[in-house]
UniProtKB/TrEMBL annotation:
GO annotation terms (biological process): polysaccharide biosynthetic process
Keyword terms, alphabetized: NAD, Oxidoreductase
Domain of life (superkingdom): Bacteria
One function term, GO molecular function aspect: oxidoreductase activity, acting on the CH-OH group of donors, NAD or NADP as acceptor
Protein name per UniProt: UDP-N-acetyl-D-glucosamine dehydrogenase
Domain UDP-glucose/GDP-mannose dehydrogenase C-terminal: 336-436
Pfam families, A to Z: UDPG_MGDP_dh, UDPG_MGDP_dh_C, UDPG_MGDP_dh_N
Gene3D superfamilies, A to Z: NAD(P)-binding Rossmann-like Domain
UniProt record similarity statement: Belongs to the UDP-glucose/GDP-mannose dehydrogenase family.
Length: 444
């Protein structure tokens, strides 16, 4: 028998199931924009909010600013007449459901920076009206939704569960992944109360293939952190094994290719020059921070951090040793980095280990250039104030021959690695691009 709810919940449920409900999304970034398109493509009207006027203007003109997102989808969404973007947050009373997709970075002290979530919650509170559903999607520590966000929203005088509804549903967007998209990735949903869960689940079920209900917003928050901690720890594990095996003269890539043939009980993770992106190096520390409040330590998270943060140093050391073998010092040596995005085939350089590698090489006096088919200019980064101003060089014989060494940081598919092997003096390969042994290739 279908669950019954108070009249106000039933009324919003009806609006959702008939797709008359208007969806508001705060934060039109890597997460918010694909989510907006997904709802529009299912027939909803979407109002996108962003503080960045350039994004608002681009969306108004039907233009995408995210490279891996098909521009035709944004153009088509604009043509439906059901998509509008705005920087006017006084319009937050217009949508029936508001989804928060703002950044959740770390502070300089590596603690959760909740300023974006807090700021958005206040803006919602200022315009909150009866019957609205609010869902937080930003990755965060357990308790954010039912303590922090609820507390701010209730300053409006309205009551959660009676006047408005509140849930958490983590985003699992994987930029550049061709096999999975927002609409096909199952969506975990946790409500602060039963009515909120029913509403959030109903909303996502309209646009996303499968929703997975959990008993609370906290469980949903913890599920997201668990997924990313699992990745962070396993990346650290293979990175540590890489170093150990290398010392023993064993190739980690050969080992992984063999281990991965086990049809059960093994999940492959690949080593690399560190960890990167907006999620894996940051999210685990949201739990570490919250755990301290409960007198608990998170040893795996700390160790994963130590191992992964050490990797750029390991890579630079490998390059130094290789130069040493050739009677050269790093100082004055021309190094070409291949790939600066944090992972293959995307244009996002956030938290990329490339920055730490560039900084280490710069301090040691190397002369740096890079090629990345997806990152034409090295962006300014708050944490890396001394980075040289660099633009991607064309990758050709001249470029390769005019450098003393090539360092593969990111293994983009668009690069011709045979040509790199032909023309480079030698290559430090952190991604296992070259599987067989070659005198020019140093695996790192
Ligand atoms: N990028 C991913 O692959 C990914 C995957 C899963 C989860 N997440 C999580 O999703 C959340 C958003 O990440 P993202 O990658 O989309 O970030 P992003 O930086 O790409 O997008 C955030 C957007 O919010 C806007 N913004 C900032 N402050 C704002 C404010 N006060 N009001 C309105 N808009 C504001 C920014 O201009 C930007 O357009 C984070 O919590 C992140 O951890 C990201």
């Amino acid at each position: 028998m279908a669950e019954t709810h108070p009249a106000a919940v039933e009324s919003l449920l009806a609006k959702i199931t008939t797709r008359e409900a208007r969806v508001g999304i705060i934060g039109m970034g890597y997460v918010g924009l694909p989510l907006a398109l997904t709802f529009i493509e299912k027939g909803f009207r979407v109002l996108g909010f962003d503080v960045d006027p350039e994004k608002v203007t681009a969306l108004g003109a039907g233009q995408s600013y995210i490279k891996h997102l098909d521009p035709a989808r944004v153009a088509a969404a604009a043509k439906t007449g059901r998509f509008e973007a705005t920087a006017d947050f006084s319009r937050l009373d217009e949508p029936d459901a508001i989804l928060i997709c703002v950044p959740t970075p770390l502070t300089a002290q590596r603690e959760p920076d909740m300023s974006y979530v807090i700021g958005s919650s206040h803006k919602i509170k200022d315009r909150l009206r009866k019957g609205q559903l609010v869902v937080l999607e930003s990755t965060t520590y357990p308790g954010t939704t039912d303590e922090l966000v609820k507390g701010i929203l209730e300053q409006s005088g309205l009551r959660m569960g009676e006047d408005f509804y509140l849930a958490f549903s983590p985003e699992r967007e994987d930029p550049g992944n061709r096999d999975h998209s927002t609409a096909t990735i199952p969506k975990v949903v946790g409500g602060v109360d039963r009515g909120s869960l029913a509403l959030a689940q109903a909303l996502y079920s309209q646009a996303i293939a499968r929703t997975v209900a959990v008993s609370s917003a906290r469980a949903a928050e913890a599920a997201k952190l668990t997924e990313n901690i699992f990745r962070a720890v396993n990346i650290a594990l293979v990175n540590e094994l890489k170093v150990v095996y290398d010392t023993m003269g064993i190739d980690i890539w050969e080992v992984l290719d063999a281990a991965a043939t086990k049809p059960f009980g093994f999940m492959r993770f690949d080593p690399g020059p560190g960890w990167g992106g907006h999620c894996i190096p940051l999210d685990p520390f949201y739990l570490a921070w919250k755990a301290r409040e409960f007198g608990r330590s998170t040893k795996f998270i700390e160790i994963a951090g130590e191992v992964n943060v050490e990797m750029p140093h390991y890579v630079v050391n490998k390059l130094q040793l290789a130069l040493n073998e050739r009677g050269k010092a790093l100082k004055g040596t021309k190094v070409l980095l291949l790939g600066v995005a944090y992972k293959k085939d995307i244009d996002d350089p956030r938290e990329s280990p490339a920055f730490e590698i560039i900084e280490l090489l710069r301090r040691l006096g190397a002369v740096l250039s890079y090629h990345d088919p997806h990152v034409p200019k090295l962006p300014r980064m708050r944490s890396w104030p001394h980075l040289p101003e660099l633009a991607s060089l064309p990758l050709n014989e001249d470029t390769l021959k005019s450098h003393d060494a090539v360092l593969i940081v990111t293994n983009h598919s668009a690069v011709d690695y045979d040509a790199v092997l032909n023309h480079a003096a030698f290559i430090v390969d952190t991604r296992g691009v070259y599987r067989s042994a070659h005198p020019k290739v140093i695996k790192a």
